[in-house]
Every structure is written in structure tokens, then in C-alpha cells.
Amino acid sequence: MGQVGAWWVRAGRGFVRACVVAAVALLVPCVWAAAVALGIRWGAGNPWSWVAPVVLVCGGTLGLSRPVCRTVRRLVERWTGTAVPDGYRQAPPVAQLSTGYWWNGFGYERTRRDALMDQRLRVRWKDPANWRDLRFTAVLPFTAGAVACLPPSGVVVAALGSFGLPVRVLGLLVAVACAPYAWRCLEPVAVRFLRPSAAMALADRVAELTAQRADATVAQAAEIRRIERDLHDGAQARLVSLGLSLATAEKLMATDPERARALMREARDGATASLTELRELVRGINPPVLGDRGLADAVRALALDSPLETTVEADLPAGLDPPIESALYFAVAELLANAAKHARATRARITLGQDPTGLVVRVEDDGRGGAVPRADGGLAGLRRRLAAFDGTLEITSPEGGPTSMRVRVPCASS
Amino acid sequence: MRIVVAEDLYLLRDGMVRLIEAYGHQVVATAATGPETLTALLEWRPDVAVVDVRMPPTQKDEGLRAALAARREVPGLPVFVLSQYVEQLYARELLADGSGGVGYFLKDSVFDADQFIDALERVAAGGTAMDPAVIAKLLSSGTSHRRLEALTEREHSVLGLMAEGLSNQAIGQRLFLSESAISKYTTSLFGKLGLTDDDSGNRRVLAVLAYLNSP
Fold first, then answer.
1. Same structural domain for residues B39 and B69?
2. How does residue A414 score in pLDDT terms, banded at 50, 70 and 90?
3. B89, B107, B108 member nearest A300 (Cβ)
4. Range of the domain at B12
5. Are residues B89 and B193 in the same domain?
6. Which of A114, A267, B123, B194 could form a disulfide with B103 if both were Cys (CB 3.0 to 4.6 A apart)?
7. b or e along A319-331 (b: 16 or more beta carbons within 10 Å of the residue's beta carbon)?
8. Residue B140: its chain A contacts at CB < 8 A?
9. Residue A49 DSSP label
10. Distances (CA, A) of A151 to A19, A106, A201
11. Rounded mean pLDDT of A139-145?
12. Which residues of B touch A283 (CB under 8 A)?
């Protein structure tokens, strides 16, 4: 009894859904039909009577295609849980320039409102998704729409008095039998025809690369500024003071040899300190051992210096691109430092290897876990830097540990 | 002593030669590239060779490789490696054959000329001399750190100086302690680490370094 009841519930729900799908799918065909009816009513022979219907058809189709697609997407997600990405072009932010004008990515406008309106129209007009939406609006009535029409039309046939009893019973049977299934056609159709096209995927990729390039340029400029500041405040200043000490010592040599000697010792200490600073700076830019020995040995050197008991297993191809080596080296350095600092681990294992998709670096520790990338944190920064190489960072760090971090970079050398 | 100096930067090479000659030692040959270094080492068989790590033609670790190759040909050939940076990895490679006659220092070490020449002489005599920076890294790395937890602070610093290659007498001078006090510390720390202190010379240094370097 319960099963039959459940079936009726499903049939009822399916019937409502089929009606909704049919209504959405037939919206645009209805506009066309209305336009044709209007044209015929005004006089099929007179070309002037078709002007308004053509305008109605064009405007209606263009204007309704996006709302229809949005509705279908929302229905599919709500009923089946399948998310179909829309891939609509996003408007870039509008900025006011020092001249007082507003720049919206296409042109200058006097007010913010004008800039936003102009931008919305242009983004909407030039969006490659428009073509896909139009195609979908054309495909929908003939596929999911036609199938979804079955239950409602069966009921209509049963309700109308103009047919004989057998036909009306048959209509009711068809309606009831296919009610739970008729709307399901919507999902495959939406997945097939409503996802972003290749051109849109390409456009997205271009936008992504543009953003990455901007990121990389900003990061590079910041890095150069940091190096300049370090040199200016560190080594340069120390060398000036060293020269001063030596000049004073030279002057005092004859009159006060004891003070001259002290000054020279001071100068020597200054030279040692500036060398130490320069060494740290160089290590931060490009660790010498990486240039000398390549990634595997550089990571071994890193493991030896780490306060954790660290083992390294390496199976890497020869001749990796230096930028990728450097990115992976600094990634391992950061992950290892995190393991020591935040995870309170005592042991770590680093595995460097490759699989068919590219290079894979794993850093595992026995710490307390719970690592979550925060918006401005080190892990998020690491992800951003890896993104420049299409690299990814997977984090597996349950509360209580252990933590396993996996860095993947598509291989450029192969 | 007969010394070979291998360094690619002219100013540094010249300065080094002058410093060494100022202490009454003789520089028999100089080299400016990796292959030249290997040839000079094998041809002159010096009492000790001062070798830079990074050298032409590749500007990678040519000097270190030449030194290691020469030591494979002539086991125990004393080399004193100078570098702008120190790596435990390179220290391990130099010590790997266990025959001594190895020095590994930052270039800054020449600022203290007395200690530099002293270390150079120690290496020439078949001893071992390590930069304090190398030893500090060695003592603080994962495995060592755990093993050395039992040591007192004073024993820890004695162990460090011992690993640098200093004799009990020299350690005593650095720490302002008597030689007998130092030997008391060494006996106790060797006991804690489970090593036997049957020698106070180079074998002891090598044993300590091997202990610290073992995985």
C-alpha cells in the first residue's frame, strides 16, 4: 500500500514538473505563434502587417532566451542537484579616474550610473553565451519540451468531450503512466546544450591568464622592491659604515693606535654581518644549492636543515624548467616550515615524483593537522604562486592530524 | 706548507695568496676553473688546497666536484673548501670517505686570519675543520636535536667546538676553562651519547661528525 502511495506522490509531483517544463519550453514558440496569428489577422497578403510580428518575434526570442535558460538551470539544480555552469561574462569593476570620468572597461562615461548601464549593455551584447542561449531556446521545445508535453496533453485529451471514451481513457492512462518520468529529459538536455561552449571556455581561460599575469607582475614588482629595500637598508648602509670606520682608523693610526685597532675590529664585524645579510637575501631569491644541484638535492639540503626528522624520496626527470624547480622548492620550504611551526610535527616525509599528468610533490607530517588556507595566509599565497604554472595544492589535514599536502604541476619538460 | 689556491674571482684569489704568504706559507699554484683545479691538485699534490665551491665553466659546484674527484684519486688529499654559503649536504659529501683532511668554511672565516691559518694547518695535518655555521645546523637538525636532549648546555657547546675540529686545549681557550675541565665534559658527554673516547685527535672528531650525521 505504501509503495502504491509513494508512486502516486511521484506521479503527482512529476505531473506538476512536466507542466512547468512544458510551460518554460513553449514560452518562445508561443511568442512565435502569437506573432503569426497577429500577422494573419492583420492581413497575410499585406507585407506591412508583418512588420510588428517580426519585431515581436526577434525581440521576444532575444529577450526571453536568457531568462528561459536561467530558469531551466535553476530547475535542473533544484530537482536533480546537477549544477550546470552558466559561463556568462562577468562585468569588470567600474573605476573613477583622476579626471573624474568613469572607466568601465569599454569607454569613459560622465557618471557612474551611465558607466554601469553602458557596461551592462556591452557585456550582455558581446557575450558569446548569447549564441548558446539562442541555440538552447531552439532545441528545448523539440526535446525536453516535447516529452514534457505528454502528461498535460493526455489530461487535456481526457478532459475534452470531443473524443470517444476509449481515446479519452487512453489519454488518461498515458498521462498517468509517463507523469513520473516525462520531466526527467530536461537534465540530459540541459547538461548537453546549456554548459559553456568551447569558445566560452577559451574566453574564460584568457580571462584567467590575464588575471594571473597581473598577479605575477604585481608579485614581481613587490619582490624587486623588497630586494632593493633590503640592499639599501642592509648591505649598502653597512658598507658605508665600514668605509667610515676604516677612514677613521687610518686617521687615528698614528695618534691613537689602540682606538684604530678597535675600529678595524668593528669594521671586520660589520663586513661579516653584511655578508650574512646578503647570504640570507640570496637564499630568498634563488638558493645557491638549487642552481648547483637541482631540485632533488636542494630539497635534501632543506630536509637536513629542518628541525624535523625528514626523509626525502626523489624520482624526478632531468632537465626541469628552472622556474618550476624554484616554485616547487619554495613550496616545499613553506610546507616544511608550516609543519614545524604550526603543526608541531616531529617527523616529515617528502616525496618528489611524477605521474602522467606532471610533477607531484607530497609533504606529509605527523603533526596535529587542522590546516586551513586563510584568505591572506601562506597556503593561499602558495596556491596563487603555483597557479602561475597551472599548479595545484591539495590539502588533507583532518583535525588531530596527520597532514598531507600534495602539490601538482603539469610537466613542461616532457 | 705548499698550498694550491683555486678561486675564480681575481681579487679574492690574489688576496688569499697574499694572506697565506704573509703567514710564511708557499702558494705553489692557482686555478680559476673546475678542470684547472683538478689538474693542479693532481699535479702538485699540495699539503693543502684552498678550493672555492662555485666556479666556471658551469658556475655550479665545479670546485667541490673537483675536490671530491681529486680525493678519490689521492685518498686523504687535504682540501679546505671555502664558499659564500654552507650546506650540510656538501659537508656530508666531503666527510663521506671518513679519511679526514677536510675543511669546510664560509668565506667570512678569512676575516679572522689567525684562526683561518690555524684551521688550514689543522687540515693539512690530516685533521678536520668545520665552520661554526655548519656545526650549528648539524646540531639543530631533526635527528641530532632529539639525541642531544640529554646534554647540558655546557656539554652541548663543548660538543659543537669538538665537531668544528678543535682540540681540548683549543676548546678550553675558547670557553675560558682548563684543559682538564674540558676532558671531564668530554668524558661525560661521550658517556651520554654512547661513544667511546679513546682518542683526542682527529679520529674523535670524525666519530662525533659521523654520529651527528647518521640518520
1. yes
2. very low
3. B89
4. 2-130
5. no
6. B123
7. ebeeebbbbbbbb
8. 307
9. G
10. 8, 49, 37
11. 90
12. 85
